């Protein structure tokens, strides 16, 4: 990563000079304090070049200037409106499930600090002819009479060099200086300040008082993009500024109000920069390597603890991080770039619909459309939508909480918000922002996608299929562009497959990693003047000791339950009624099973068919690689095939459901396994599995309805329970599994052990640094513990008689409980788990408790979303049975062959009273059936569904439930 950054600095920084009029309109009010304070207009950050990065300085470029070729007009086919309609328009909302909605609001909040182009009325706007069938504007009564969409032109550089490339100037300063809060003019800054103090004015809505600042804002530009998400963050860091002022006043009572204001501004901005660098960035590019690199930007390779303990012992930015290192422009005067703006077009992050919940009760309190949360005015009112929403929800706590729960949209094609494609801006202009995004890149000379990649030394796509990796999307691109060289940059970035954990493309990441460090290392106040002398010792402590979490909780204490256990506040929070009850309800009410609880999406079967097709290819590949012997496409490697006994032992009469009759006993066959679809080394961390087959469940002690099977035509006498070592399933449903789980399945089936081991090492390192990891990556960081000491979960829900439940199997006897905190010896070999199981059962007995967790609330404990945790406090797991495994030979050749080749396990081989529920279980029904059929056909081994424990090779008749019987119940009393 360091090498890549150095290459980018050498080849992708280009200055554009300064014209005679490219400068702030007036002198700055803080010009005399510039050595120890930021000016408002950005001047005097660089003392040798005072205008560098100031307001109305030119944007630089990240590509050689000879490749800057603005298109005139920028509306040639395919025109931007067609691209908006056919490639960008949202079909179904595609969520970015590793992030929450605060992450979307945050990046807009920061971009409003960094960049702003002006637009002009003259020359006349660009005009795009609307197709006859295009209904743009009709919904809001703004259809252009002449059938043409108008888009104002970007304001030209007032000092354009007629012999050079076209340039544009920034209406903001280029520095990371909090101008979205503090402004860039004396008039706005003074209107915002509370007289006689260093603090900011905050009104009853939590915002800057309208009567003081409204006349200082220009709603035809960036200010008109204000919405509730920005309101939250503006309010949060205005409050933080005031909290810093209080700290400074307490520490330094002789400090003047102006000095308090300036120091608080410095500290607040540095804290925002820190949050962006080590919290927001790791959330949106949650790959261990990049996460580590971003933390190294701030703390250096030595890390945070070293910096805290020993201070800055070297000037090296690599070893000790950029803050406090020498200022370095790398030979090019600092500015932000038009190419940087182009890759930050992420409006797809915004949903069209927002759900709101109470942070105190978790209850649903309302829905709003995006258009209801923007700057738009409400008929007959002056306060506008934003303030009305804040008042409707009686403050910001519930809105913050709801944003913490909600996902933003994924930055991908067909996910641009409907609202932003057909809406009236705060200045009254009707616009399609998606079309504007495409037009702006063309107008400003941003190279098309392939050329852009070449200029960053990346391979250009030779075909549409190579660009996107998706045949259907490739065909859509071909229909619009015909030539892959013509694909617009934004479209290519949205279509490009994303690396694991990334919220945006690898191409965009090149610009990101270059400019993320440049914003810091060119800024005097983050480098040579990032010192106690400039910031004060209290200020340096404030920056060091605080984070997004502490800022949120300082000003909104009620958010604490939702942030409990959340490593990164930009990742999804916990639902309060799901995770944070202090004690169980006095009289819990359990949800009763009903067919209406399940809600199957109309295209689910189609998605599952696609999954089966991909897994079938995995099966064929492993079949050829495995000497033409078929194995399971998941849980391929077994570690023991065990004879056991299930004895019903109920922690409450209400748990007597289905096969769990008081005193009932059943023979069981269990198969311990690792979940990969390949035979891998036991030294690799990962998920383990346990399949339990309960025999003799057709016993007449069960009623007629209780003996009914989950699937028509199933005549088995068994009940299968499939358990794994992760409590929640890593994917919500079949659709998410298809999008995100299939790459993991392919990885686990095909990647060599050595490569997977290195990947796991990186994930473990990231976890030790307390960096957020995608759910799929987090599965690999849990310690590699003995499989017999693990706790196993059903992950997805099932019917439990009249109720709905999840299952857990927990070590009970001391013989297995003592294994819970141990780890597999690295020298134990590639079959360490199997060898340990064989050794254990030579002399030992293992006892486990089978427990159920009953559903109490389908909102907090959803049926169709398998990755949402069910609260242990709201509904603790309760024992329904014990399962005992006596001493035996669990892995004889005959046992292994029986468990791996003859038997099949499927949670749908079940009584109807224990039928699996939800999308993930419906997926498993067909996937496991297809996998089993392939395995048995290719190996020419008939599938056998046992009716008696005697069919298990080397079974122990003494331990069996009864002679020739696999299930027994207490005798019913005679009458």
Could you characterize the architecture of this molecule?
The chain is of the alpha+beta class and 975 residues long. The chain has two domains: 2-545, Haem peroxidase domain superfamily, animal type (Myeloperoxidase, subunit C, Orthogonal Bundle); 595-960, Beta Barrel (Catalase HpII,  Chain A, domain 1). The chain is built from 35 helices and 18 strands. The strands form five sheets. Strands 9, 10, 11, 12, 13, 14, 15, 16, 17 and 18 form a ten-stranded antiparallel beta sheet that branches. A two-stranded antiparallel ribbon has the order 1-4. A hairpin with a 2-residue loop joins strand 14 and strand 15. Helix 7 packs across helix 8, helix 9 runs parallel beside helix 30 (753-768) and helix 27 (604-625) packs parallel to helix 29 (734-750). The radius of gyration is 31 Å and the shape is elongated. The chain starts with a helix and ends in a 7-residue tail after the last strand. It holds the Pfam family An_peroxidase. This is Peroxidase. Keywords: Dioxygenase, Fatty acid biosynthesis, Fatty acid metabolism, Heme, Iron, Lipid biosynthesis, Lipid metabolism, Metal-binding, Oxidoreductase, Oxylipin biosynthesis, Peroxidase, Plant defense.
């Amino acid at each position: 990563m360091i090498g890549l950054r150095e290459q980018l600095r050498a080849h992708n920084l280009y200055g554009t000079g300064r014209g005679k009029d490219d400068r702030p309109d007036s002198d700055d009010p803080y010009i005399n304090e510039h050595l120890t304070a930021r000016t408002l207009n950005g001047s005097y950050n660089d003392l040798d070049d005072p205008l560098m990065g100031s307001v109305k300085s030119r944007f630089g470029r990240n590509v050689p200037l000879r490749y800057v070729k603005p298109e005139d007009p920028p509306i040639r086919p395919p025109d931007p409106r067609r691209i908006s309609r056919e490639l960008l328009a949202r079909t179904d909302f595609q969520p970015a499930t590793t992030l929450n909605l605060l992450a979307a609001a945050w990046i807009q909040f920061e971009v409003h600090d960094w960049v702003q182009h002006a637009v002009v009325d003259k020359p006349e706007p660009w005009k795009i002819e609307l197709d006859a069938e295009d209904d743009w504007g009709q919904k809001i009564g703004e259809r252009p009479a002449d059938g043409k969409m108008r888009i104002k032109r970007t304001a030209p550089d007032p000092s354009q060099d007629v012999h050079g490339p076209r340039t544009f100037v920034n209406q903001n300063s280029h520095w990371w200086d909090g101008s979205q809060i503090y402004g860039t003019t004396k008039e706005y800054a003074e209107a915002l300040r509370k007289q006689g103090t260093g603090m900011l004015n905050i009104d009853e809505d939590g915002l800057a008082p309208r009567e003081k600042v409204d006349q200082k804002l220009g709603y035809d530009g960036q200010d008109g993009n204000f919405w509730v998400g920005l309101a939250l963050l503006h309010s949060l860091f205005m409050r933080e500024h005031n909290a810093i002022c209080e700290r400074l006043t307490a520490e330094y009572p002789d400090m003047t109000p102006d000095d308090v204001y300036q120091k608080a501004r410095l500290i607040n901005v540095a804290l925002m920069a820190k949050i962006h660098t080590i919290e927001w960035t790791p959330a949106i590019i949650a790959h261990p390597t990049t996460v580590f690199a971003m933390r190294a930007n701030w703390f250096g390779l030595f890390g945070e603890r070293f910096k805290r303990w020993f201070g800055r012992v070297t000037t090296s930015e690599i070893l000790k991080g950029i803050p406090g290192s020498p200022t370095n422009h790398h030979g090019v005067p600092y500015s932000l770039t038009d190419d940087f703006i182009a890759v930050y077009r992420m409006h797809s992050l915004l949903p069209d619909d927002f759900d709101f919940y109470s942070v105190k009760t978790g209850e649903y309190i309302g829905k709003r459309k995006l258009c209801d949360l923007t700057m738009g005015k409400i008929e007959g009112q002056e306060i506008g939508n934003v303030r009305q929403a804040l008042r409707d929800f009686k403050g910001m706590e519930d809105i913050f909480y709801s944003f913490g729960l909600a996902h933003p949209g994924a930055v991908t094609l067909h996910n641009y918000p409907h609202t932003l494609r057909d809406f009236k801006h705060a200045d009254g202009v009707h616009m399609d922002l998606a079309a504007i995004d495409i037009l702006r890149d063309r107008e400003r000379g941003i190279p098309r996608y392939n050329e852009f990649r070449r200029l960053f030394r990346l391979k250009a796509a030779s075909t549409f299929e190579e660009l996107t990796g998706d045949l259907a999307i490739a065909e859509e691109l071909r229909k619009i562009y015909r030539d892959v060289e013509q694909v617009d940059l934004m479209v290519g970035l949205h279509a490009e497959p994303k690396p694991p954990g990334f919220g945006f493309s690898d191409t965009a990441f090149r610009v990101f990693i270059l400019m993320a460090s440049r914003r810091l290392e060119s800024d005097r106040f983050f480098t040579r003047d990032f010192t106690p002398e400039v910031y004060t010792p209290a200020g340096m402590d404030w920056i060091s000791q605080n984070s997004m979490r502490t800022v949120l909780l300082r000003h909104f204490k009620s958010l604490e339950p939702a942030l409990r256990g959340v490593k990164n506040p930009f990742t999804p929070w916990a639902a309060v009624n799901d995770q944070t009850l202090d004690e169980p309800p006095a009289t819990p009410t359990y949800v009763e099973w009903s067919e209406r609880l399940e809600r199957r999406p109309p295209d689910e079967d189609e998605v599952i068919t696609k999954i089966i097709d991909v897994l079938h290819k995995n099966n064929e590949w492993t079949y050829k690689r495995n000497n033409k012997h078929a194995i399971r496409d998941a849980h391929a490697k077994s570690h023991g095939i065990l004879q056991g006994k299930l004895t019903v032992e109920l922690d409450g009469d209400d748990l007597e459901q289905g096969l769990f009759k008081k005193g009932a006993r059943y023979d069981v066959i269990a198969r311990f396994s690792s979940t990969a679809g390949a035979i891998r080394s036991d030294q690799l961390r990962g998920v383990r599995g346990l399949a339990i087959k309960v025999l003799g469940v057709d016993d007449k002690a069960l009623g007629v309805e209780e003996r009914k099977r989950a699937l028509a035509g199933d005549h088995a006498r068994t009940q299968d329970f499939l358990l794994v070592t992760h409590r929640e399933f890593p994917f919500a449903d079949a659709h998410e599994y298809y999008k995100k789980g299939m790459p993991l399945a392919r990885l686990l089936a095909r990647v060599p052990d050595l490569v997977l081991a290195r990947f796991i090492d990186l994930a473990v390192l990231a976890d030790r640094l307390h960096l957020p990891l995608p759910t799929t990556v987090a599965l690999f960081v849990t310690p590699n513990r003995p499989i017999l000491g693990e706790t196993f979960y059903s992950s997805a829900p099932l019917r439990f008689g009249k109720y709905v439940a999840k299952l857990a199997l927990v070590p009970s006897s001391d013989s297995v409980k003592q294994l819970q905190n141990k780890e597999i010896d690295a020298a134990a070999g590639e079959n360490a788990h199997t060898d340990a199981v064989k050794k254990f059962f030579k002399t030992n007995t293992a006892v486990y408790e089978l427990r159920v967790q009953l559903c109490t609330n389908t909102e907090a404990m959803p049926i169709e979303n398998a990755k949402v945790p069910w609260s242990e406090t709201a509904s603790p797991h309760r024992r329904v049975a014990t399962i005992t495994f006596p001493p035996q030979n669990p892995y004889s050749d005959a046992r292994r062959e029986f468990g791996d080749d003859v038997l099949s396990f499927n949670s749908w081989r079940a009584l109807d009273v224990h039928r699996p529920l939800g999308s993930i279980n419906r997926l498993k029904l067909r996937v496991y059936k297809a996998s089993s059929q392939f395995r048995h056909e290719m190996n020419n081994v008939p599938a056998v569904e046992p009716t008696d424990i005697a069919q298990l090779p080397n079974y122990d008749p003494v331990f069996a439930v009864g002679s020739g019987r696999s299930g027994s119940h207490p005798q019913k009393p005679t009458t």
